[in-house]
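Morning!

This is the sequence you dropped in the shared folder:
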Amino acid sequence: MSDISGGGPAYGFYGDDFTGATDTLAHLARAGLRTILLFVPPDAARLSMLGRLDAIGIAGAARTMPPHEQQPELARVGAAFATLGVRVIHYKVCSTFDSAPQSGSIGVAIRTLKEYCASPLVAVVGGQPNLRRYCVFGELFAAAGADDHRQSIYRIDRHPTMSRHPVTPMNEADLRVHLRRQGLENVQSIDWRCYARGDTALQTELDDRLKSKPDAVLFDVLDESHLQMIGGLITCHASAQAPLLAVGASSVAQAYVCALNEAAEQGERSAAPTPLARACGPVFVLAGSLSPLTEMQIAAAHSYLRVELDPLQMTGDAAPDYVAARVAAIVGPLRDGRSVLAFTTRRAALAADDTRSALPQLPHACAVLLQAVLGKVKLQRVGIAGGDTSSIAVRALDAWGLSYLAPLSAGVTVCRLHADRSELDGMEIMLKGGQMGDADLFEQLLNGYSGGFNRSAQHPTFPPVSRQGS
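The structure's back. Tokens below.
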């Protein structure tokens, strides 16, 4: 595919956690866009090594940051994307929009990145149907449960998990109100009924909303056809001279790809997902998520030796000795060829106030454990469960990027890790949010998964490209 920006990549995205960033990476790569996901904005040497790119991503951890940390992080990203000539800057948030004024504020993100986007339209895409996330008249709804046929749909403020999130509970379903609480006073909206009236009427409706110079315009999403309409608006309002800021889950990338395919009249360009082969050796999974779905996945992981991690001991005064003992309990079986699942103490044990107080530091402790394990045993495939755990643990590794390899299920992707250290470069890594994946996801990670995918399909790939070999 040609680079439609005429210079650098036309599409740039920042993931406010690593798991969501890999999902966006997957959607763009499967559409035939040559895409790389980096951990920091690239310098000239890195860009030269990577060659032509259609899209570029930065995997971050803004979802866990207070505003005084979030603002400089995103300013660096915005400046980098501006230098590259990116036309669409996508601030990728969780599909449940969980955020708060004091942690992962979407309002802070919009105000910061808008400085690098001259387009008057800030598009907030409110749903992602393939993940069963829907936005209707500005209100967000989401499914809960692992069984696609038995999932119930909840308004987000009544969702059994997201309404009780330990850091950013979603207690407001109206995304306009949710964003207003984060400092965006004027959020206009386009409801789903507008899409049926056609492109011209939709554009007229949008023009009317833009007259008030809104902080953002929220778009309802009920099905995939709505994304095609939204994608047309995004690409129409974005240019090299006036980049556009879009906010939302991977549905922003889906909308963008729909618009590209329609413009090129090449709907067949998107490649069917390639299957994931069985792991060649033992697999290590680190589950820091405390969600009920991850708990189900742990219970279904029958092929793994399980090692429990106590949050209090992982983060207490004796943490170094405790972590060292847990690392030994993990590394020994891995060296013997046994797959291992290390998981934090489940929900029943988290009712105590002292245990809950340890939760903010738990992802950092998990990162220390992962570093120690990978320093002692070379693995082909690793899985990490939990948005915060994934972001912090992968950032702590001596690596610089990820490229798409294969999907496991909706919202869950296996990537190839890129690092300058040969023992890490090329490692296959799955990052998943707590609410994502099938019940047998960890078994799929070990045994491989075809999911009815076309084995002959191709997508742009990045082989291991460590600096020593470049």
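Headline: Residues 314 and 323 are 6 Å apart (CA to CA).

More detail when I'm at my desk.
O.
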